[in-house]
Write a structure and sequence with these properties.
The complex is a heterodimer of chains A (113) and B (112).
Chain A (H helix, E strand, L loop, with lengths): L3 E4 L2 E4 L5 E7 L5 E8 L3 E10 L2 E4 L7 E2 L9 E3 L8 E8 L8 E2 L3 E5 L1
Parallel strand pairs in A: 2-11
Antiparallel strand pairs in A: 1-3, 3-8, 4-5, 4-9, 5-6, 7-8, 9-10, 9-11
Chain B lengths: L8 E5 L4 E6 L8 E7 L6 E6 L4 E2 L4 E4 L5 E6 L8 E8 L14 E6 L1
Classes of the chains: A mainly beta (113), B mainly beta (112).
Chain lengths: 113, 112
Amino acid sequence: EAQVTQNPRYLITVTGKKLTVTCSQNMNHEYMSWYRQDPGLGLRQIYYSMNVEVTDKGDVPEGYKVSRKEKRNFPLILESPSPNQTSLYFCASSQGLANNEQFFGPGTRLTVL
Amino acid sequence: DAKTTQPPSMDCAEGRAANLPCNHSTISGNEYVYWYRQIHSQGPQYIIHGLKNNETNEMASLIITEDRKSSTLILPHATLRDTAVYYCIDAAGGTSYGKLTFGQGTILTVHP
């Protein structure tokens, strides 16, 4: 089954404790991205990647890192999480950049205390 | 900021057609009209997209006006499972690198 998976689905952590949210897709997609969703602000793009070893900032990249060492994986790294990073996070992938549907993962609900 | 305008909420009776409007006042020539929906807090789900012509797939139909300033998503026979937030998005490839800018969307509630 074609899908985007994220782990963990739920995470409660404390300020400053490094964490990684994994994202994996099994569709051989080139393009992957991370969004966060907050009440009243909608979904906002954090980072995106057009292919292996090619990443770039989205609209709200501060406090996040990403890497794309393999085509299928695109982890989101919070080196020193803060409470304002409490959010619902979604990973997405698509075959190309234009005129393609994006497949979203199920989401990761992160709480930073 | 989102470039599209949608009504905040709509209601529809089960079995009837749901017609969701969207205004694309600043859409440019290379931008497609995309529709996604999000059920509860699940990941957004692609529904349909188009450039100029009307489109239909197994989920919905998309009507785009000739000037491309507005579109309508049609769910021909709405069910309770179609209750969701529906987003219309103008998106281009190339320089926008496939970024989807989500607005607040329309909350569609399908009633029995």
